[in-house]
Amino acid sequence: MQANEIYERIKSKFEDAIVEFKADAIVEPYLEVKADRVKDVCEFLRDDPELAFDYLMCLSGVDYGNGTLGVVYHIYSMKHGHRFVLKVKVPIDNPVVQSVESIWKSANWHEREAYDMFGIIFEGHPDLRRILMPYDWPEGSYPLRKDFQVPEFYNGMKVPY
Amino acid sequence: MATFEITTRSVKGDLKTDTMILNMGPQHPSTHGVLRLELVVDGEVIVDVIPHIGYLHRCFEKHAEQMTNYQQVIPYVDRMDYVAAMGNELAYVLAVEKLLGIEVPERVQYIRVIMAELQRIASHLLAIGTYGLDLGAFTPFLWCFREREKILDLFEITCGARLLYNYIWVGGVSHDLPSEFGKKLKDFLKTFPKALKEINDLLTFNKIFIDRTANVGVLPADVAINYGCSGPMLRGSGVKFDLRKNEPYLVYDRFEFDIPVGEGKMGTVGDCWDRYYVRVREMEESLKIIEQAWEQLPPGDVHSAIPKKVRPPQGEVYFRTENPRGEIGFYIISDGHSASPFRVKARAPSFVNLSVLPEISRGYMIADLVAILGSVDIVLGEVDR
Amino acid sequence: MGLLDKRFETENIIITSVEDVLNWARLSSLWMMQFGLACCAIEMMAASASHFDIMRFGIIPRSSPRQADLMIVAGTVTLKMASRVKRLYEQMPDPKYVISMGSCANCGGPYWEHGYHVLKGVDRVIPVDVYVPGCPPRPEALLEGIIKLREKIRRESLVKKKLPPVYVEEK
Fold it and tell me: Which residues bind [4Fe-4S] cluster (chain C) (predicted)?
């Protein structure tokens, strides 16, 4: 199935959840949906027999730099061999996105990583802790945000060179 | 005199047992690096495993954003999965080339295939060698490293480095193959099947080894897909999925090779032995690919398509290739005006494969956990990036 | 002691100082802690495998720090790992030696500028005896580091202060 057919199929069911579909984006078309509906959309994408997206390839957090954070889902169907890109954007002062952990288990660690690196809160995640950084890393310090400042000391060790 | 308080437990006589928490790592000889596992055990039986990662978090994604151009990211990509650096470079470079929309000469594509497959053999040799070491077999480790050194020699005469190459560049490769490469490659292709047979006789079909690995850590196919497993983990569970066949890149569609899958020959489909044996069989298939690629290798200039400036248009790409450990993907965002990537996210196969560990190790003994962890074949540099 | 091997036809007595004997014993059986951090650990494994055979220097990998004399810090030390490296070092019995292998352990290596989670040099937490440069150093470089360490131990004294660190030069 091509991306625009997949889009039409989602549109027929979730007209209100769609923010934007960009068919002419470079390299791959993508669909942006609302942050509080992403779980429903994903559930539909997985369970619909025509779509059958059973494999989450990648889940990436992004800081767009203008006060917006984003989550990008790259999904794939083992059964049909087609792929699709889903996007969610949230404001940096209230970065809450629905978790898709219950749909694809692989999202568990990816979401923890996005939380660790960007501070995106995944609603409904069973175990949202830091994953790569130490558990006692300063609260509110998210390394991959564009405005991140390297702390001078961590546990008595000098961090900068 | 101290009085002894008699606990209710011993009075009643029913021996209640409790679970215990055991720490494994970050320094442990069988965790293949700096992985920490928190085990909840009931006697010898594992109730739960909680992996703690990040002890080798080297800020790859931050570095990718901070570099002055796209090419400077390649050395950092090398250092992600340091056992299969060629494969990482390949995935990253192909992603950038896709974003740029450039075609590379045929010769470059063939050289890349040869390098990627040699790297696959080298990586699997390390994986099975250390797997034997984990389970108490020391000799296969030495034999595997002997063969691995031959591949590293091939890399060394080509680009000067043994482990981290910076060989595959955007639009080409750094050096053409040297004149003596062909002879050395043919020597290797001739001697390696013999060595592989020796390793098979010594380890693969060894009764002790089979007893330790068969029917241990069984991963069903649907769980593997749901957890996003890839590579030998997925194929060991009987799913015939290989990006070289399913989404061919480079010139992989011109070669004949099989995709080995787990068949449950010694136990259940998807057990540790199956995952291990998929790796052994994959090395044979890689040999086939290298032989064909070497025969078809066309002449040409390997530097002709290297762009002077890498300035991709505004856009984003997710490109994935089949690394020895599974699907490695790079998600690159270009903002269209700067010379360095706006965001690079690496989808590391070990990171995703490791997340299934608690699922497949519950109910087994602690000693089995070593076998299970070895069969997942993680590289911590890639898990933590 | 290779110089004296099978040189005497009848019984004999060798006179030497206690220091020399102790140093000789120490440098001839440096048991190494089997402990790898990153890329360099693969080269360390290669050094201990068939081609380079580190065991001819009397170096035997031990899994426990309690049995080790030598710690090869092979790879990037991160902030999360630094306290563990320190603790492992403290668990080793004296006399103990440290080889810092690779640029990351020496000074942060390629991660020196933007590595917000990388310790810029393991010598910020534990003392280092020999620095081996390279990213990663070839097994030969590690072997040279070990030879340098042996030379250093040979010059040690029971009562005098510890010798300063030595460096393997890049060629």
Answer: 39-40, 104, 135
Contact list, B385 vs chain A (CB under 8 Å) = 132
| Residue B59: CA count within 13 A, CB half-sphere | 28
Local structure of B108: helix, strand or coil: helix
Task: Name the residue facing C63 among B29, B141, B149 (closest C-beta).
Answer: B29
| Residue range of the domain that includes B200 | 60-383
Cis amide leading into C95 (omega within 30): yes
B371 assigned to some structural domain: yes
Fold of C4-167: Rossmann fold (3.40.50)
Determine the residue of chain A that is closest to C124 in CA distance: A157
Give the C-alpha separation, B292 to B290, whole Å. Answer: 5
- Which residue from C54, C80, C70, C10 is spatially nearest to C144, judged by alpha carbons? C54
Averaged pLDDT, B149-159: 91
Closest by Cβ to A57, choosing from B62, B314, B329: B329
pLDDT of A86 > 60? The answer is yes
Q: Which helix (H) or strand (E) holds C24?
A: helix C18-28
pLDDT at C171: 62
Task: Please tell me which of the candidates A134, A154, A161 has its beta carbon nearest to residue C108.
Answer: A161
Cβ of C110 within 8 Å of Cβ of B75? The answer is: yes
Q: Count of domains in chain B?
A: 1
- Nearest-CA distance from B213 to chain A in Å? 25
Task: Answer whether C79 touches A (CB < 8 Å).
Answer: yes
CA distance C84 to C102: 19
Alpha-carbon span B317 to B357, nearest angstrom: 30
φ, ψ (nearest 5 deg) of residue C152: -65, -45
Chains A and C form CB pairs within 8 A to the count of 27
Confirm whether B24 is domain-assigned.
Answer: no
The pLDDT, as a whole number, for residue B15 is 66
ipTM confidence score: 0.92
Answer whether B315 sits within 8 Å of A117, measured CB to CB. Answer: no
Determine, yes or no, domain membership for B9: no
Domain edges within chain C: 4-167
C104 is in an annotated binding site: yes
Q: Report if residue B35 sits inside a domain.
A: no
Residue among C79, C108, C113 whose CB faces A154 most closely: C79
C107 assigned to a ligand binding site: no
B interface mutation test: which of C33, C50, C79 has the most B CBs within 10 A? C50
Domains of chain A, CATH where assigned: 3-158 (3.30.460.80)
Chain B contact for C123 (CB, 8 A cutoff):
no
% residues pLDDT > 90 (chain C): 17
Q: Which of B86-90, B116-120, B265-269, C158-162 has the lowest mean pLDDT?
A: C158-162
Q: Where are the alpha helices (DSSP H) in B135-180?
A: 139-159
